[in-house]
Amino acid sequence: MECTCAQRDPRFSSRLLETLPGSEGRHFVIILDYSEEIKDTISIVKKVAKTLLNLFTFKDKISVKFYHEDNLVPSDNKADCLKISSKATPYLKDKILQQIENKQPKGEAASYKKIFEETFQILYNDKNNQTEKHFIFVTSGYYKDGSWSEVEKGFKDGRKSLECGVSFSLLLIYDGKLAGATYSNNKNLAGVGCDIEGRDNFMEFELGKDNNHFTINSKISAILSSAKNFNDFDDKVHYIMPISDRFGRGTTIDACKAVVDKSSSSQNPMKGAVCLSFLTNEFIREEWSQTENSYWFLIKRNGQTFIHPKFGQPLGSDELSRTVNILQIESSQSFKDEVYNDMISGVPGSKILSDVMMPISRGPFGATSQNKTLTYTWKAVPKSDFILTIVTSSDYEKSELKITNQGGAEDYHRLDLWNSTYLDDHICKYSETQVAVKDLAVIKFPADAFLRPSIYFKLETNETVQELKDLFMPGETATPRGLFKSIDVFKNIRLSAQATKSMDQYWKNDTSEKAISIIARYIGMENGFFRIYPGLLMNPSYDPRARPWYRLMIAQKGMTLTTPYLDAFTGETVMTLGQVLHMGKTSTEKAGNIAMDFKLPYFKVLLDKSINECETDGACVVIDRNGFVVYQSSFMEKNENSTLENQHIIKMHSRVAKSMIEEGVMIKNYCLEFRNNITIKEWFYSLDHVTEAKKYESNRNCLDYRVVPIVDSNLLLLYINDACTLPENCNCEEPINNERFGYCSNDISETNCECPCIQPVTCLSDLRITPGRLECNPEDKRKTDFSEKWFKGNISELTLCFDPECKKRDTWDNCESFKPACNWCFKFPNGTHVADEKKHCDYSDEECFPTPSPPIITPAPPTTPDSQETEDLSDGAIAVIILFSIIFVCSILGGIYWWFNKKAKRRQRNNNNNGNNSNTTLTPRANSGFDDDQYQPGYQPSGHAPNDRLGSVPSPTDTKDAAVEITMPAVYEERPADENGSVSTTA
């Protein structure tokens, strides 16, 4: 059984590995035996080879060769950087690692003499480089040389040519069948030609022995200090690339020095390294935000980038180092020419650059760009070789939340710690597996706001819940002791709570019938603060900023609708509609998102009520501006093994997608994502430029389609007429290793039809600095665990948090108006109609007539207008939240209607029609959808919408500038500020 703790072996930590080489680094040549002689020991070879790769840092040069028969083969002939000795970048090591895993043994044993000649020649070519040189030979022990004396002579000559300046390590991986003489020949090579104690190593790994990670690490770690002249040891402090603190306190940088016993007579007096860890936020105040208009980065004087917003947060405490030069991220020519040299000199300075192309995130998918004026201000960090730089754009403004509402008592999300009496008064059924608190919103803070992020959840008590409740009372100025990371962090969170508090009352008071279809409403802020209604217990790892919906919305303008995805609280499939919040009425600084969840059938109902073309023979598909399918009819089919999240139009409708690429409707591009251990090209699609409805006739005579944008949103409608019979497929690889996308094909280009994909960059030469190159925002790898079931009672006995009271609705139209919550039962499962007296309204998740003789349900008397508590929510039924000088209004509206962009033309057209409706078609296929057919209670016509008329509908066939406006649940509305520049907090 292998020891899992060996994965954290300090001898292979980045702290020690980056301290040992000093400033110069080392040169390693690794020769791996991949002849058929190792077929029985291939698993040991792979373990040893992977462990060897862990020895190397970005300071080292490496050359890895696979040998069999008379050939020394580079790991990948297509990659130039693998044919020669190159810097041990994470990109290079990742590529070699793939080859180690995938390459299969081949051919007979090779000639040792030839291997030694070629290897020493590689090292000799680097003779003038005053770095440590290592020759690591991983072999089965078998060779085809007839004369061992010739082998030894060649080995000695090679070492002498390098003036004994190379260490040699032979790692024998054998099957136990090796002849005694052959075994001795291999073992005795160590020390041949250069009699320097401690310079060479011999290690054996025999088949059948305990070759676990701990054993392999223990042996190979000896190579670390081989050939080190500790009398000339670099005594400098070495700064290690940022890592994630193991205790969750944030990103840290280690300052390390080697510990050497210089009085020791041993050739290997290295004892280890001593390090001091400090949080990166000690370089700069936490309040300085990393946004599109302001950010900071940290580099060394050699240009190596340590911290930059284009880097993702480190996840592990021993991740591979990144080796990206700042010129590869700040890639404008003006930065290189006017800023870079002055910056790395260490002399403080500032420079304004005009018309710099600045990458702008498109959320989780790709990037775009905008030319801006940027100001770079830099200063050296005292007693280090770091340079800290702050960048602001001409759009930057110092914005803070301006609060006129002083907030009130808050309910913290730890329902499991609430007073039982208080909880019993509010508990309700949220889903089949989760409960919530009715009529109450709760708040949650991000883990990184706490003093002890990794265990804060375990330290919370009943007293903590009450303390947090009191801390948000109006006028309260106290701060909790020993709970939050700092006073500033808590004050920032309290501001967010005060700014969003007024939404609680609106959410509670919104008892309109249409609001029942909304599962949850919430606000997520840039500081990680989260408010949700109805309130529920969340997993400690939940952070809205790490969720895909948040990253998508924060990068958009207008309303944003997500593709269906699994809700973190219930595990059920939901869609999220939301909009970004700004710091102020005219501010461009983003404060967070306001959003709401609903189930997929609700969106289907809205679509079906308004556009009957979606029920005709053609296809009606809703996509977002990344090309992902938000909705199509097949999404309603039950398939336990399928996911609806991030299904691209290329995969779902390949023929249409090919035509969209050919016609320039869908534009393909890539951006570079700098990850912690590898850089990738992320290929994505954009439809951001599509602003007008247009019909496209494909060169395939059997296909035409129409693209119609939905105004003020991230959505487009596709009407597809596809009569083609021959299949057309595009390349779409399934994601692996928790990636969003699959890997690209070898012939990926801007024109081929291929799903969004990722393409690892192996060689630094592929990262050429070119004008117009885009950098993606790094993917947030933090994972949110699904909320666990904590309620011990019987959930089925609880009342629904939002109860549409389906059983009380006595007519078809009254029942169907609450789809998808309610369903009109008028057929048995086999399709047979039932008697009129047995037709009834029931909950949509209940099976209608589960038995052949269902009980007769006597409907309750219809609700009269006098007995109604509220009317449907209108545009005027709003609530306010204040973020600096904005009122954010949530209202529930339904329906989709057509709208012309050119209002003057619309008014003129209406005047010419003298008020007469023109019942035109939505597509060339049929005249259907908006006629005068009436609905009758108790009967369900097919292919028509209820009688809430939408008026005149222009035809897309002759209207080039038509667009669709979707007035689904709106997420905010701006109101004028008062004379003081503030906004009233009363609805």
From TrEMBL:
Signal peptide: none annotated. Residues 910-919 have a biased composition (Low complexity). It comes from Clytia hemisphaerica. InterPro entries: Ca_channel_alpha-2/delta, Sensor-like_sf. Residues 852-871, 908-987 are annotated as: Disordered. This is VWFA domain-containing protein. The keyword Secreted does not apply. GO terms for molecular function: voltage-gated calcium channel activity. Keywords: Membrane, Transmembrane, Transmembrane helix. Residues 852-864 have a biased composition (Pro residues). The chain crosses the membrane at residues 877-900. The keyword Isomerase does not apply. One of its GO terms (cellular component) is voltage-gated calcium channel complex. The lineage of its organism: Eukaryota, Metazoa, Cnidaria, Hydrozoa, Hydroidolina. It comes from the Eukaryota.
